[in-house]
Structure formats: C-alpha cells, structure tokens
Write a structure and sequence with these properties.
alpha+beta; Alpha-Beta Plaits; four-stranded antiparallel sheet; globular
C-alpha cells in the first residue's frame, strides 16, 4: 500500500455551521493520521494559487469569494492510500449525488456549499500540501494504534 499525504480543507460553511469537528472525526476514524492541522483565513492570493486551473471559468469568481469568506481548517492527512480513502469519505462533489454515510451525503445540500475539499490525485496533493504547510509544520510520528490500523 502506498503511504501518501493529502490536503483536506474543511470549508467556511462547515466552520460557520460548527460541524468541523464532525468532518475531522469522520476522517480520523478511517485510521489516517493527522500530520498537520491549522485554522486559517485564505487570502485571495492563496485562493488564486490553489484554484489556478479554474481561472477564466464562469464559476471561478464565486469559488474564490466563497473560500475566502471565512476561516477554514487545513489538514494534511497521511497514511496508506490517503487520497483515495479521504475522497471516499468525502463523497462526490455534488452533495445531491453523494452517497449516504459520506461527509457530503450527510452534511451538505448544495454543490456551492459542500463542506470539504480534498486533493484529487498525487500531483495535486503534493502541490496543495505545499501551499498550506511548510515542512516544519508537518509531523511524522507513530501512534499506539498504528499496528492495529495498518499491517
């Protein structure tokens, strides 16, 4: 199994609704390890770097306006298959199509307020983790439960 790092953003709607803890709990219950976590206000400059691939698309201005509208919780998750596992927990981008039991399926109603962002692939994860965390902000540690989570 691949040991990966991925970026998760608990978006402003989740922070404002007071459900950030529920979102984090669902991710932690998978066995993935939090390697870094912080509460921050995303600037327009950081949003432009993060969503650079969407510049010029009709939804881009609204995307930037939303992600900069309030605090987010940025999390670097680490573990075997961290990207695919966290994306499965998140559910599809559109909450109306997300399966029950996923973060979006249970906690969101609208695609524009879908509670969580997660890196889509290894290249995105490496780039996005680097946008939100310096190397000295990421911890590599062993938990007492690790032997019970991963073979």
């Amino acid at each position: 199994m691949a040991h990966e790092k991925t970026l998760i953003l608990v978006k402003p709607d989740a922070v404002q609704r007071g459900i950030a803890g529920q979102v984090i709990d669902r991710l932690e219950r998978t066995g993935l390890r939090i390697a870094g976590m912080k509460l921050l206000q995303i600037s327009e400059e950081l949003a432009a770097e993060h969503y650079g691939e969407h510049v010029g698309k009709p939804f881009y201005p609204g995307l930037v306006e939303f992600i900069t509208s309030g605090p987010v919780v940025a999390i670097c998750l680490a573990g075997p298959n961290a990207i695919s596992i966290s994306r499965k927990v998140m559910g599809t981008t559109n909450p109306a199509a997300a399966a029950a039991g996923t973060v979006r399926g249970d906690l969101a109603l609208d695609i524009g307020r879908n509670v969580i962002h997660g890196s889509a692939n290894e290249a995105d994860a490496a780039r996005e983790v680097g946008l939100y965390f310096n190397d000295d902000e990421l911890l590599d540690y062993t938990r007492a439960i690790d032997g019970w989570v991963v073979e």
